[in-house]
Amino acid sequence: MQRPLILVTNDDGITAPGVRNLVNFMNEIGEVVVVAPNSPQSGKGHAITINSTLTFEEINLEGPQKDYSLSGTPVDCVKFALDKILTRKPDLVVSGINHGANSSINVIYSGTMSAAVEAGVEGLQSIGFSLLDFSWDADFTQAKSHIQEIVKKVLKNPMPKGVVLNVNIPKLAKDEIKGIRVCKQADAKWEESFDQRVNPHGKTYFWLSGYFNNMDTSSDADEVALSEGYISVVPVKFDLTAYEYMQDLKGILE
Amino acid sequence: MQRPLILVTNDDGITAPGVRNLVNFMNEIGEVVVVAPNSPQSGKGHAITINSTLTFEEINLEGPQKDYSLSGTPVDCVKFALDKILTRKPDLVVSGINHGANSSINVIYSGTMSAAVEAGVEGLQSIGFSLLDFSWDADFTQAKSHIQEIVKKVLKNPMPKGVVLNVNIPKLAKDEIKGIRVCKQADAKWEESFDQRVNPHGKTYFWLSGYFNNMDTSSDADEVALSEGYISVVPVKFDLTAYEYMQDLKGILE
C-alpha cells in the first residue's frame, strides 16, 4: 500500500523550527513534500500574490522529504504545490507548527490557518498546528505524540467537505498536557493601541500593538481549553454564511 | 439629532473610483471619514502589518468628508481609524466599492471584505460592497440607490453581533438590476493554473492564473442571484466553527 502523501507548509518560512519539527513528525507517517515560503509571512491572512511574480527552488534540508521554497504567501504555497509540484493529490495538508497561538479570532489573521483553509477549499483534508510560544527556540517536541495521533485519526476518519482543523497546543511540558479537547472558536478580540514614535527625520510613524481580550468563559471555548492545559481542536469552515440570520435579513432588505 | 458617523475604507487604494463613488453616496447619508490604503491592496485577505511600521497623512479630496491615507492593509485601516483617527465610535463601516467580484469563496481572499469583517470583530455594523467589473473606469452609479437603501436599512435595523454583509452588484445598467436578494455564499472555487515564463536572465518565474468555477446552482447562492441580475447580499460571520461537526469530531479525537 502506498504511504499517504502529506504536503507541509507554514507561514514562518521554510527554515523555521516549527515546520522542521512538523516535517520530522510527518516523515514517520507518510511521504512528505514541503512547499513553504522563503521568508516569514506571519499575519498575512488569506493573502495571495496577484500583482507580482513567484519563483521557487528546491532546497536540500535534512531528512527524506522534498523541500521547495516559494517567494509567496502560505496560500500561494498551497496553490503552487497542487498545480506545479505534486504529481498526485495529497492525502493530507498540514500547516505549521506556528510559532504562536492561532486560537479564537486569530484564525482569521493567521497565514498558517489560511494555508490550511486553502487546502480545504481545494477539497483536501487539512490541519493547521500552532504552539502557544512565540520563541524561535520553542520546544515543539512535547506535543509530537498528540500531533501524530491527530494526523493518523484524520487520515483514518476523513472530515466532511468544507471542514479543516485548527489545532493549538499549550506551552507546557509533555506530561503537563492533559489531552485533546474539541472546541469552538472563543469569542475574543485584540484591543488595539498603536504605538506612536518619531523617526530621526521628524516624521511620525506607528507600530501595531495591543493586548488580547478573551471574552468567552464557556467550557468548550478554545481559549478556555488551552488555559486548562488541553490541546484545542476547532473544526473550521469557510462557508462564512450566517444562515441563522438570512430569514431576518430577507425581511429587512428584500 | 447627530448624523450617523460612517467610516469608509477599501482595498483598491484611497483614490480608486470605487471608493470615491462610495464616499459620495455616503456623504448624502451621514458624516463621513475615509481611512484607506495609500496603494492598491487587492488579494491581501485579512493581512495586518506587524513587522513594519505605518504612516498616515490627511489628504484633500473633493467633498465634505475627511480623507486619511494609510501605508497599510485594509484591516490596518480599520484598526488605525478606530484607535487613532475617529473621536467617536462609528455607526457604520463601509468598505469598497471594490473593482471586481467578492462573491462566493472570494470573500476569504478579499481585502474589501476583510476590512468589513474586522469592523465586525470590533463590534461595529459593517458592509462590504463590490461591483462585478474590474475596470478602473467602471460605472459605479447604477447601483447608487440600492447601496444607499441597504445602508439606511442597516442603520435602522442593526445586525446581530458577529454578522457583517457582503454585497455584490452585477455589471448591469440601472434599470436592468432586478433588485436585492439575500443569499448564501455559493460553493465555488478558483481552478489554478500558474503561468510559467522565463525572464531575460534565464530564470523561470510564475504568475498566478486560473479560472473561476461555480459549482452551486441553488437558487439562493450568490453567484446564481448575480447571474440572474440581482444584487446579492450574504450575511457573513467570523465565528468559523463548524458546530455541526463538533460531536462527530469528539468521537474521533477525544
Automatic annotation (TrEMBL), chains A, B:
It catalyses: a ribonucleoside 5'-phosphate + H2O = a ribonucleoside + phosphate. GO terms for molecular function: 3'-nucleotidase activity. Residues 6-192 form the Survival protein SurE-like phosphatase/nucleotidase domain. Keywords: Cytoplasm, Hydrolase, Metal-binding, Nucleotide-binding. Its main location: cytoplasm. It holds the Pfam family SurE. A divalent metal cation binds at residues 11-12, 42, 98. Its EC number is 3.1.3.5. Nucleotidase that shows phosphatase activity on nucleoside 5'-monophosphates. Belongs to the SurE nucleotidase family. This is 5'-nucleotidase SurE. It comes from Kaistella yananensis. The gene is surE.
